[in-house]
Amino acid sequence: MPDRHPSAGRTRPRGILQRPRRRVVPCWLVLALAVLPRFDPVHAACPDPPVAEVDAHQVRVERPEPGWAVIGWIRNRGAEWEVLDADRALPTWPPREGAVPVHLSAAADPVWSRAIRHAEGPDRPLPAVALSCVAEQDPAARNAARLAELAVAHARLRSGPDPLAAALLAARLFLLRAAPGLGAAEQDWVLGQLWRLAEDSHLDAEAAGWAAVLVQRARTRGPPRLLAHALLAEGRALRERDGQRALARLEEARQRFLELGMAYPATVAEHGVCLQQRLLGALEPAIACYRRVVARQLALGEAAAALYTRLNLATALSLAGRYREAGEELDRAARMPVLASQPEAHASLRRQRAQQLTWAGRFDEALALLGEVAARTDPQDTAGAARIDYLLGSTYRLAGEAGRAVVFFESAVQRLQGTSPSRQRARIRLALAQAQLDLGETEAAREQADRAMAELTRLGEVGLGERALLTLGEIHRRAGNPAAARAALSQVGVPREPRLALRARLLGAALGLTATPAIDCEASLRQVLEEGPLLLALELGEHCIRQRGREGGTDALDLAERLLDRFLPIASTLRTPALRQALLASLHRLGASVLATQAPGAVDPALGARVHHWAARLAQTQMAALAPTADDRLLALERALAAEWLAETDAPAPAGPALRLALPGAAPDPRPPAAPAHLAPDPPRLGAGVMLALPLVSEEDMGWLILDGRRWSWWPIDREAFLDARSALLTLLAEGHGDSAEIGRRAAALRAALGWERWLRPGVHTLWIGAQQALATTPLSLALPEGLHPAIGWVLGPDPRATPQPRTVRVLGVAGSPGAGLPPLHAVQAELTAVADTWAASAPVSVHSRARRTDLLEALAAPGALIHLATHARASTHRFEASGLWLAGTGDRPDFLSAQRLRGLAVNAGLVVLSACETGRGGGLFGLGVGGVAEALAEAGADAVVGSRWAVGDRAAMAFSVAFHRALARQPDAPERALAEARAELLRQPALRHPTHWAGWFVLRRAPSAG
């Protein structure tokens, strides 16, 4: 009776036609010589022993005479020797500890020869050849010959994946299991081959099942060597399915090998222990483990094995944030002589270095290196090319560029279309879903997560399947479908991996499931902070702050400030604006969670002052100087982007410079980052009729922290109602022809959601609001209470900064058109003339009617200047560097100046007026600031910026600009009041009365400097 497959409950595994995966790391974790067949050659009739000749370049075997078969092994001594078959390395069987199998049947060519090569010189010991002469008519000898022949077939299959060959081999193995006279050891060997076939075909459930059969057989009858190898096999197969059980199996295998005095297999098992510790998040134990394994592998002469272990060690060090040590390990790996004979390792080394650069925040260097790897990847190697696309997408997502990440994830999925289901494709689909979720594309994200789940179900995955279900649950929750989210979570059960279990609890708590076990906040936070996953720590922090507030605790803000102190220095070191803003937005949400537990109305002055101080620290970090970008690379990026858009395509070319040069490229500062200086916690002194409102937004809570004089209060906002009304109103206004009555109804719904009447008192003439994207991109002037029309200004931080009297006035624009491919701007010349005439009597004025980038950069550097710029602009919500301004270029070709360049300038202007489209759009929905060109200029140093939320018509922009400057000339220090007067002026003109023409303009102020 054959052993049954424990995972499937039947006698043969499913899906053996799956394409075997190409191996990156040589497979050491195999059954060794103890489970090889015992050859019982028949010597009586064999005239002479087989002849084998070996030198440094070739092995040659001769059969003694026709009618006799030869079986045996070429035993490699060390990992440096390879036997070549058709110029490709023929894997040893079992790999590394076994040998290359030889089988010359009685009917085959009497001579068998193969080339051999080595990596460390001819003074190394030559391979040893052990051969026997058998009569294939004898049943025992025939079984032995079959086993050797199947070993040859499997070894060749591993060097050149072939699904049909895998299926035929599996069938032959199943038949062989029932062959008469097959001994127990031979049956063990067949089971080992079935396990290996399942693993090569990426069928982990089947591989775990066959390995479990071997463990069960070995525990009941021995021998000890078989049990040790079977434990090793099962530990490897359980890696993605049951991490804790896999770790126990690998550790037991290591101990048994040591008891048997088998140093090399013990090291192989220990390497598996290291990897499992890393996968379970125990980084420091994994690092120490990897270091021990490297030393032992080098002592055993296994240089190739030590090379791959070093790469894994570098990964663990990078995950732990020890980037310098990770780089040192990669340097050591690059100096190992064996690297020259390991092309797979060489590619892996470059990928590892790119990942290490990514985790260190050096994204542009990582992208450039991955581009080099992509250029060297075989176009026919679809799996390898998909892996590179996946790494590129992951790098862009870590850099905050979710839009570009989606492009590469989709490319990776497309490359793998038509292939068999695989963990790799499922993992890529999950990454794609997460990036789409970052962009708010919940329906597309749900579709990708569903398809990933379907693949994982077919593969019988457990560990990765739990991650997929949690991702699916989070997608449904964000999409407003709690029932589907609960259904996904119910399938997860209790994940064995601690980090996944914590994520499941957080999702259950967010869904309001009473059966979700309570979280021990102190212990969980301590563990997560030690392991270092930033976003999980912040998500846990939000939950714990709300939990403490509901329990009546008074230390919620203390906990929030502990998290702020931990992560604010990290945010200050991030070198891309998008990534820095994402982390700051997460810290911003902690403040909303603190105040969400307060009753509406008056707030304790000390609490209000501390949250105000909190917002000040966030603003200071957001506006901290970034590392400058090399001009030549940024110029190449801007030119590539210009060519891309003028060609009416928004899809980046895979090899284009826009992909490789999108992020800052200066060398990192070797000095440790200093914590941001704390601003004074005292609230600003507001004049009569002035109020300050700080909007605080999290994924669950939203509200206003109001300062009226020196009194603080908290007023919640109906978050869902606000988002619905906001979306509907912006859609109507962006169309430009929305019905006025419908706009009025949507504005009334927005007014009710915001709850103005509860705190915006009569007599307020100026309202300053902290810039937060969900609110700053909303035309709040449309939703003001009846009879209350204060001047509204947005401020990057908790305190407004005065706008000085302009020293000079620089009037710039591009009359006509910046160049081919862009529509003409017929009203710009008249607009520039009217603005210049308005200021001619009060300040020196200069006019550039065909402004180039040098003109604008010179104007921005002028201290205290008032700058007016009329031109085309572009906004991108997916790609940070893709927002910018169009200026006059060379000849008929326009020049594109990106917001990324503007963000890195030292801007000294007092006020910048941007008479252009969408200069206040860009970034995500819940980040700090307003996004786009306006925010880039304010962060770079402009005291105040006037911008637009959506596209504006040429003549409407001229009318607004003229009215605004006339009002500003009467009160230069009050651009918010000038904006309100300009809006009123446009309302008096019948052709411009529609809100599309005037409701999109805003004023953004810079927060004060520290100290």
Task: Give a written overview of the molecule.
The protein has 1011 residues and is of the alpha/beta class. 50% of the residues lie in helices and 12% in strands. It contains 36 helices and 23 strands. The strands form four sheets. The protein has a twelve-stranded mixed sheet, with helices on both faces. It has a five-stranded antiparallel sheet with strand order 1-2-7-4-5. Strands 6-3-8 form a three-stranded antiparallel sheet, with helices on one face. 54% of the residues are buried.
SSE arrangement:
Blueprint: E1 51-54, E2 58-62, E3 69-75, E4 82-85, E5 88-90, E6 99-104, E7 111-117, E8 128-134, H1 139-159, H2 163-177, H3 184-200, H4 204-221, H5 224-237, H6 243-259, H7 263-279, H8 283-299, H9 303-319, H10 323-334, H11 343-359, H12 363-376, H13 382-398, H14 402-415, H15 423-438, H16 442-459, H17 463-478, H18 482-492, H19 498-510, H20 521-531, H21 534-550, H22 556-573, H23 577-595, E9 601-602, H24 605-622, H25 631-646, H26 657-660, E10 690-697, E11 702-708, E12 711-716, H27 719-735, H28 740-754, E13 766-770, H29 773-776, E14 791-796, E15 809-813, H30 828-839, E16 845-848, H31 853-861, E17 866-870, E18 873-874, E19 884-887, E20 895-898, H32 899-903, E21 911-915, H33 932-940, E22 944-948, H34 954-970, H35 975-987, H36 995-998, E23 1001-1006
Parallel strand pairs: 10-13, 13-14, 14-23, 15-16, 15-17, 17-21, 21-22
Antiparallel strand pairs: 1-2, 2-7, 3-6, 3-8, 4-5, 4-7, 9-12, 10-11, 11-12, 18-19, 19-20, 22-23
Helix pairs in contact: 1-2, 1-3, 2-3, 3-4, 3-5, 4-5, 5-6, 6-7, 7-8, 8-9, 9-10, 9-11, 10-11, 11-12, 11-13, 12-13, 13-14, 13-15, 14-15, 15-16, 15-17, 16-17, 17-18, 17-19, 19-21, 20-21, 21-22, 21-23, 22-23, 22-24, 23-24, 27-28, 30-34, 34-35
